[in-house]
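Protocol step 4 of 5: obtain the predicted structure for the target chain.
Materials: sequence only (see below). No template structures provided, no constraints applied. The aim of this step is simply to have a reference model before the mutagenesis design in step 5. Sequence pasted as it appears in the construct record:
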Amino acid sequence: MRLYLPVFLFVLACSSVSAQQELMFYQMSDYWHANALNPAFFPQDRNVQIGLPGFSLDAWNSGDITFDDFLVRQDNGFKLDFSALIDELEPENDFVFDQRLETVSLGLRLPGNFYVSAAHAVRTHGVVVYPKGLPEILWEGNGALIGQTVDIAPSTLGFGWQEFRLGLAKTFDRVTVGARVNFLSGVVALETDRGRQRATVYTDPDVYQLTLDADYGFWSSALVESIDTADLGFAFNLVDNVGQTKLFENAGASFDLGAEVRLLERLTISASILDIGGKLNWEKDTYYFRTNGNYTYEGGIIDGKDLLNGSDSIDFETDLDTLNDVFAFSRAVQDFSSTLPTRFYAGVNYQLAEDWAVNATFFHQNSTLIDQTAVGVGLRWTPLQWLSVGAMYGYNSRSAANVGFHLGFKPGPVQLYFASDNLLTAFQPYASPQVNLRMGLSLAFGKRDAGGDAGVPFEER
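Step 4 output (C-alpha cells):
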C-alpha cells in the first residue's frame, strides 16, 4: 500500500480521529460505565453489573476549522480543498483525539462492602501539532511562498491499544476507595522524535530553486514498513496486516486510583487519577526513520493542489522523482515506548431534593504534546426512578462556551445512556471544530433491599 507523504501527513493531522473530558458522564456514578472514570464508583442499588458496549469520543481542532472546510463532496466521493482553510490557521495548530470502546465489563458486590471489577476496552490517543506552512505547501505549492523560509515539520503522537482492567474497591462507613491495574497490549503507533523535528522549505525568488533543510525523525510500530524512494517518488509502504499484532506483543501497564466521600447526608465529593505510570513498549515491526541534511531541488514550482488530488497535469517523473534525493529517509530497526496521558477528575454533588441535584466537575489531562483542562457546573433532574436528565455549562482549553446534556434510562435491569459535554457538536461532527459524546448499554441484577449500607446516595434511599 502506497501513500504520498503530503497526503499521509496532513490527513493524519486533520482526521486522526481529543482528550476524554466527559464532565457530564463523571456525574452519572449510578451508571456502571462511569466506573471507568473512577474505580470507586459502583451503583448502590444492584449487586451485579454487566457492561455491554459503550463508546466515547472527544476530538477537536484549534481555531474554528471543521471537516467541511476542506472536504468537498463530489459524485464519486470527496475532494480536498484547503483554499478556504489556510487563512483561518494560526502559526501553530493542533488536533487532539481520544476514543474509547468499552467492549465488555463485569462488577460484583461482595460481603463486607467489597466490590470487584474486570473489563476490556479498545482505546486510541492522538495529538498532531502542525505549523501553518505545512498545509500552505500542500495546497498552494511552493510558488505562493517564494522568498520565504517555511516551517513544515509536524509533531505527531498517535497510538492504539487494548486494555484489560482488574479493580477492587471497598466502602468504609462514608468513604469508598478503589484501585485498578490495567494491562495494556499495543496495536499500532506513530510518534515523531521531539529531538529531531526540523524541516523548512525555501524557494529562491530568482531561479526558483527549492531548498529543504531537515533533521526530522519518527518511530513506527505495526504501521510503516519502509519509505520507498524509487519509482514515482516519495511514498510510504505500510506493513502487511497493519495493526495485526499478537496479544501483549507490545506490552505495558498503568494504574488507577479513586475515592468517593459522603461528607453530609446530601453532599458527596469524589476524585480519581487514571493511567498512572502508563507506558506502552513497542517491539512489533518497530522502525525509526530519519532524514538529515540540506538539499536543493532544481525542478522549480510544484503545484500542491494538483499533487493532493492526483491531477494529470503533474509530471511525476520531473516533479516527484527528485524528492527521492531531497528527503532520503534512512531506516533502522529500533524499539521505543509511548507514555499514556494521565487524567485527573474531581467532582462535588449536592442533592437539593429527591429528584434534583447540582454538581461541579474538574478535569485535567497531562499529555506528551498538549495538556488540557476543563471545568463544568451542572444540574440533574430525576423525575422517575428509571429516567435521568441533566445539563451542564463547561469551560475548557478549547472553548469557553459549552452546553452539555445527558439522558439516562434504567428500566428494569437495563441501563442506557447518552451524554455530551457539547451537545450541538455531537450531532454535527463534520460541521464542528470539536466533537464530544458518550453512549452505552449495561445490565444490572440482584436488586438490594431499601436502606442498604452507608454508601447509598440520598436519592436512592
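Step 4 remarks: The chain has seven helices and 24 strands. Confidence is low (pLDDT under 50) at residues 1-20, 450-461.
Proceed to step 5.
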